[in-house]
Amino acid sequence: MPDPYYEILLPETYPAGRVCEAETCTTRLSIYNPDDLCARCEKIERAERFEAERLEFLWAELMDRLLEAACV
Ligand SMILES: [Zn+2]
Questions:
Q1: Domain ranges of the chain
Q2: Residue 15 has pLDDT above 80, yes or no
Q3: What is the distance in A from the centroid of ligand 1 to the CA of 20?
């Protein structure tokens, strides 16, 4: 009897021998990693993106306050 969950449980794999795309990184990527970055670089990139978003938010909030203060 065929198991309907068999295919779902099989993890998708990607070409073996790929290397992390970050400039100074030579980490081999796992065949289970769908990204072009290794786990470490992925984490760094995400942190940088988060920091940029945070700064943008703080900047927008500061501008709001400045505008509010200017209108009083
Ligand atoms: Zn890397």
A1: 6-71
A2: yes
A3: 5
User: pLDDT band at 1, cuts 50/70/90?
Assistant: low
Do residues 39 and 20 make contact, with C-beta atoms less than 8 angstroms apart?
Answer: no
Report the separation in Å between the CA atom of 33 and the middle of ligand 1, taken as the mean of its atom positions: 12
pLDDT in tens, 25-55: 999 999 999 999 999 999 999 999 999 999 9
For residue 16, report the distance from its CA to the centre of ligand 1, in Å. 15
Nearest partner of 35 among 14, 16, 10, judged by Cα = 14
| β strands within 16-56, DSSP E | none
pTM for the full predicted model: 0.57
The DSSP letter of residue 5 is T
CA 43 / ligand 1 centre spacing (Å): 9
